[in-house]
What we know:
The structure is a homodimer. Chain A is of the alpha/beta class. The first copy, chain A, has 13 helices and eleven strands. In chain A, helix 5 (103-109) runs parallel beside helix 6.
Amino acid sequence: MYNALVRYCTRLQGKKILIVDSALKNLYGAPLAAKLNAALLATPNGEKGKQTADALLDALFRLDADRDTTLLALGGGTTTDLVAFVASIYMRGIAHILLPTTLLAIVDAAIGGKTGIDLPIGKNLLGTLHPPIAIFADLATLHTLPEDEWFNGLAEILKLGLIADAPLWQRASDNPKEPALIRRAIQGKIDIIARDPTEQGVRRILNFGHTIGHALEAATHYSLPHGRAVALGCLAECDLSRRLGYLSDNTFAAIYDVYRRFALHWPRVDLHPALRHDKKKAAGEVRFVCIDAIGHALPFEGAYCRPVPAPLLQETLDWMEGAF
Amino acid sequence: MYNALVRYCTRLQGKKILIVDSALKNLYGAPLAAKLNAALLATPNGEKGKQTADALLDALFRLDADRDTTLLALGGGTTTDLVAFVASIYMRGIAHILLPTTLLAIVDAAIGGKTGIDLPIGKNLLGTLHPPIAIFADLATLHTLPEDEWFNGLAEILKLGLIADAPLWQRASDNPKEPALIRRAIQGKIDIIARDPTEQGVRRILNFGHTIGHALEAATHYSLPHGRAVALGCLAECDLSRRLGYLSDNTFAAIYDVYRRFALHWPRVDLHPALRHDKKKAAGEVRFVCIDAIGHALPFEGAYCRPVPAPLLQETLDWMEGAF
């Protein structure tokens, strides 16, 4: 596995430090570290809080990591986000390579240079933009992926279909496990980010479904898996788009029909505290990306994020509570 | 005071949060916050460790700071570095304005977008590059500056003279308190950074004197003021330049003569642990900027930082110990 990575790394000067989710340490971490002649560190299972970041920074100092050092992150999106964040603040930024091992990380989290760590009141509230020097995904790691983890990735593929790629939406709805979806989703996300790397405009459409999705995660104290939160968030934001008059009832019904297949459950929680902390908030109002057709996010003053009146948002939240 | 700042801020949308060194809270902080209609936070006196950064981040969340918020940092370099670092990682980067109040911060720390916080084993080991949207210096704040603080700034002005501006060196040697030095030093630093904003090449010459200077600070647990450390570091690195054969004995003697005027004292401490953690280290070797004349730093493979053999470095450290 990871033969292309091993060849790539022979060109790197300086120390290499492989940081791996502890659940993958023995299966993938130790053999890969040996092949790469890299030091090996493990992070607690899927943790990316401040304490984990602090512990990782301490470990880098103990290993004498310097500006020539390259960090390699092997794991899901929490691991790749965390390692990328640490790389971005260590000595004003050192190089890192991402090795995503989950469908979510491969099609979404590892792409685009966003880094972040979570705080109890919200996800990724601390973070930077710090692109990796390379990303290698070995799809063999997906063979043992649990169903929930697979759905985390599918939810992002469906989202990408809704905002930018109607055929992708159709194919993912018809045959969610089609392997070719992965490459198309990766390319689709890259295409959007290439047009707007620093998220001043069109890149914001990738936040579709995530305003409500993140609030659902925060309000459930992250007991709701990301994919379920994003799927529910996408449907809710389709409903908002419908209530605002952009999306037809028929199209909305077709979208609802797809999400209904996945046994989703809307948690009875208060989303308002988390929505108040949403990063897209501006001038005190929460903002949403809207779509007006499958495959098309709606521009709004070049920003793609529009404020939504509170009563209308409440109608959507009430509707979702009844719908699942 | 700060009239230009007040006019500038009327153009800003979103919340403003003024973060001030607690020593300046009553004198400058409270009146300025009132004029700007800004929330006011104070950081412990000149502290910029991780705990201070964490406390500041917590305070920003409590104040509901969002992506439209602008942070303003009023104080010396520790305050401006700290606030800029926090701005760079809060929600992947928010805007900040620097209001340096010390000579060091005005001519050096606030310019160039470097941010950082200190760890017990070294300065600025965590940091980012995140330029402010504006810098305002009101020279009235310098009227009450203690002598040690003034020397902190002078040491950087002398350094800039040594690496890039022989007339500045001469004027600062002859009349260290000449007010016009300030503007010339600011412009000189800006000129270098404009040629290399991300420090891939020529910007590195600004590190002259700081390899040994930072090691002196770390080894004395920061009891040695920055200006004294940098002045001693500059002279030591001039001595290194001489031992490497780049700087003539006569020129070195003239430089030594200037630094001798300032009652410097070389602390008897072991610098090697701190030098091992220097950020410019590469391939295991500590690297130094060298000069070959007053006003001219020596290029080296486009990088301006050259490795120095350990025995030669030791000769310099021994010589410095005898010289002060």
